[in-house]
Design a protein that fits this description.
Number of domains of chain A: 2
CATH class of the largest domain in chain A: Alpha Beta
Strand order of the largest sheet of chain A: 9-8-7-10-6-11-14-13
Largest interface: A-B, 39 and 39 residues
Order of helices and strands of chain A: HEEHHEHEHEHEHEHEEEHEEEE
Strand content of chain A: 15-25%
Organism (chains A, B): Sulfuricurvum kujiense (strain ATCC BAA-921 / DSM 16994 / JCM 11577 / YK-1)
Helix content of chain A: 25-40%
Protein name (chains A, B): Riboflavin biosynthesis protein RibD
Keywords (chains A, B): Hydrolase, Multifunctional enzyme, NADP, Oxidoreductase
Oligomer: homodimer
Pfam families (chains A, B): dCMP_cyt_deam_1 (PF00383), RibD_C (PF01872)
Largest sheet of chain A: 8 strands, mixed
Distance between the termini of chain A: 36 Å
Number of strands of chain A: 14
Family (chains A, B): In the N-terminal section; belongs to the cytidine and deoxycytidylate deaminase family.
CATH superfamily of the largest domain in chain A: Cytidine Deaminase, domain 2
């Protein structure tokens, strides 16, 4: 096995993890790949939702299914069942398998059993790891594996792994805050629905995971939004209306969503009480939150025309952290 | 082997081919993948330049290197040498290998030997093919393989394969024309260099392959461009300055490039004499060429601010055919 194969596998693992970036809150986004002894990719797994199977478990499940031909657990999403099944049925099939994981496999048993113990017990002899687990409760997976004779190779695409993990690191101490906007290719952000259905569903899935949405007072008055996650049957987060003027028409739909707190405040101090915060809006909200935002998420519709207003006069250089292309282009960015 | 594995492999083959879209002129962009018997990806190959090895040859070369451990031809770019070496040394290693190819393997021997004959002689038993070869001189590869007992499965991701092949189909009959522009995320297209170094190098590589560049008269007067391919040591294509007024300062650098024809004309009729045409410019050139362009290529810099003018008042909905993310975002599009 050469480094090229490990890097290729880690690239796949990172891309898989990005598909669920923020959606795994409060867990980190993680991707995992199983490799054959000559370095070819056998399976790719990704953590999708807190409480669900870890990335390693999905990758091991699919590698087992492919290599054994036994499809019993092929579609299974029950972490305990996959762990138990693999432990009793692996029959040495993993002895030639290596793994690439964006984050050190967890040592502890939480809502799901320990990944490191499973990897050890399946007899996997080599694990490529991008980033060491920064969570003391979950760390130690690598030494557990090393003690059992497995080789753990750290630092494969470490910089990319650290970027992937940034939100997770942040929300353990203070809120992770991202600014989201939708625009056309010509930069315009006004005049009707801009994003595709799949982009709006993704955005609702994010709302479902966030605990606070921040939005500008003018947008609330003008758009009269609901700010819920109805497209994915999700929960509606609390709302902070950022406004110097406190009076709002209470028939605006966002005020009638059950189990939601709505604040109308002229500062962003409230954010400190939350962990995952999405800021929605245009130019003025962008400017007001410029020192607060960790990341930026842009849904870009490949259209020219249809609007007038763009993000001017904002001046900002971004680094693209990850992009996803569907019928729209989804850009995860941070300031340079 | 299941269809999922074939689709995954074809996706990789398509993405690999897009890396060299238009750069293979006058050949088609083609990607190829070798798969092991359980469906894992062994190697990915792509055709890079007319006269160089075909995609299948690169994929077979790398599969051989990986599976045999023999690195003799690992870095070889000589098609004949790879063909000859594989034929004499394969030692049955390919009997469990399948392939996914975006275009039917060629049957004829041109600048390089026939891919279909090589695949047959290596004993490969299954080839997934996205699109049948539309070129009568090269077609027939699949029946040649079928006659030898190999299974050819057509139509895997056929729609995507046909999109990839569109320029090749077009330039065999009439010019393939694409409009290229660079913009910031806020849609602005003016005021200094917008694209990154790697984007400009890609654009110069395209210029090197094009036989004609079309540009508006105002851009020529204002930017005083050279319109060559110096960043990649490439050749400079002919230039058509699209202008109602025929007088230009002959000290503008584009007029002094050796071995170049420069036309100053008020119509686009001249395009019919060429095969691969890039139109560069802003709003007015976009509008003038709206009925002429097959595709659109946008280099998008992830920046806000720095310019004033965007593509307004153009109204256009695009389909994104392919996107590539580096420090810039490169979007291949066509009108919806």
């Amino acid at each position: 096995m050469n480094t090229t194969a490990a890097i290729h596998a880690m690239t796949l693992a990172l891309n898989a993890a990005w598909e669920y970036q923020l959606l795994t809150f409060p867990n980190p986004a993680v991707g995992a790949v199983c490799l054959s002894d000559n370095g070819t990719v056998v399976s790719v797994g990704t953590h999708k939702r807190a409480g669900g199977p870890h990335a390693e478990v999905y990758a091991l499940r699919d590698a087992y299914t492919l290599l054994s031909g036994d499809t019993t657990i092929a579609g299974c999403d029950d972490s305990h069942r996959i762990h138990d099944y693999l432990r009793t049925r692996h029959n040495g099939i993993f002895h030639t398998v290596s793994m690439a994981v964006t984050l050190e496999p967890c040592s502890h048993s939480g809502k799901t059993p320990s990944c490191a113990l499973l990897i050890r017990d399946l007899g996997i002899k080599r694990v490529y790891i991008s980033v060491k687990d920064p969570n003391p409760a979950a760390a130690g997976g690598a030494s557990l594996l090393s003690d059992a004779g497995a080789e753990c190779v750290f630092g494969i695409m470490e910089e990319e792994g650290e970027k992937l993990l940034e939100p997770f690191i942040r929300w353990q101490k203070s809120p992770f805050v991202f600014f989201k906007w939708a625009q056309r290719l010509d930069g315009t952000i006004d005049n009707g629905t801009i994003s595709s259905q799949s982009s709006r569903e993704h955005m609702h899935a994010l709302r479902d995971r966030c605990d606070l949405i921040v939005i500008g007072g003018n947008t609330v008055r003008h758009d009269r939004p609901t700010l819920d996650a109805r497209l994915v049957d999700g929960k509606a987060p609390d709302v902070l209306i950022y406004s110097q003027m406190g009076e709002f028409d209470q028939s605006i739909p966002l005020f009638s969503v059950p189990d939601r707190k709505v604040y109308v405040e002229s500062s962003l101090e409230r954010l400190k009480e939350y962990s995952l915060v999405m800021i929605e809006g245009g130019t003025s909200m962008f400017q007001a939150s410029q020192n607060t935002c960790d990341w930026y998420l842009c849904y870009l519709a490949p259209k020219l025309g249809g609007g007038l207003q763009n993000m001017g006069p904002i001046q900002e250089d971004f680094e693209v952290l990850h992009a996803k292309i569907t019928d729209n282009i989804l850009l995860w960015m941070k300031k340079k």
